[in-house]
Amino acid sequence: MSQFIRLFACLEKFCLLEKSKRAYDEGAPKLSRPCTASGDAACETRLQGGSQVACQGAELEDEIAFMSLLQQNSLEEVDDAAKGEEFTRGTSHIVVATIVAAVLVSVAIVIYAIGTRETPAATASVTHATAHFVHRENSGLDAAGNPVPKDSFDQVLVFSHVQIHNQTKNPLFVKQVLTNLSTNEGIVSSYAAPERDYERLFQAYPELAPLHGNALPMEATIPAGQTVEGDFVASFHMTREQWEARKGMNYTVGFQYQPDMVFPGPATVSVQ
Question: What global pTM score does this model have?
Answer without folding.
Answer: 0.56
